[in-house]
Amino acid sequence: MSTDHCYLVIPASGIGTRMQASVAKQYLQLDNGLSVLDQTLSTLLNIEKIKGCVVAISKQDTLFKSSKFYHHPKLLAIAEGGEKRHQSVINALNALKPYIKDSDWVLVHDAARPCIETSSVESLIQHLESQTTGGLLATKVVDTIKKSNHQMVQHTVDRSNLWQAQTPQMYRFGVLLQALNNANHDGADITDEASAIEHAGLDSLLVESSKTNLKITNPEDLALANFYLNKPSFS
After folding, report:
1. How high is the pLDDT of residue 20?
2. Domain range for residue 37?
3. Which of 66, 159, 180, 209 could lock 137 by a disulfide, CB 3.0 to 4.6 Å apart?
4. Which pTM value belongs to this model?
């Protein structure tokens, strides 16, 4: 049986300007009384295979101290958020160094995806535990996709091999940290961990997930998240 452990990184330093709210979107309150970030942590820290967590927050953040998870035994460290998402993840990975070995797994999850289900994370871990690099949750694209030029359709894109990336994205600690550092040094366009892995010329396994694992970006997404979280079958 593998002795490699799983750890969690949550980049949570964004300000969420598209939400048009008075607080960053990770601190918006859901109908169940939890903030978006606390709902995310509530699900993920309850997964037995996740041994520890680092949350990356803005230097100006004064709200996380009020989180019910601020003193959680699995919260190993709080990292300073970077200017960009991948820089926050690098800082969080560096904060993990005292607790982790290179072959251990890191799951990086967006703070603004509070509807992540335990079953999806457990499926991701199961599918990847024998992989040398890692992979991510994703959903197959089902809509017809158009490529445009100044809002005029150029052509229809073949969607048969298109996937919409989600999180968590799960990679070996040593591989991920090196890939992110190299991509950052090269000035590559890194929008998620899989982008850095691609930049390094490595493979990522896609593990099919649910569309309910939405990322809260716009005001209407919050209402949809509340709808999913209020479903009796949610876990």
Report:
1. 59
2. 6-229
3. 209
4. 0.94
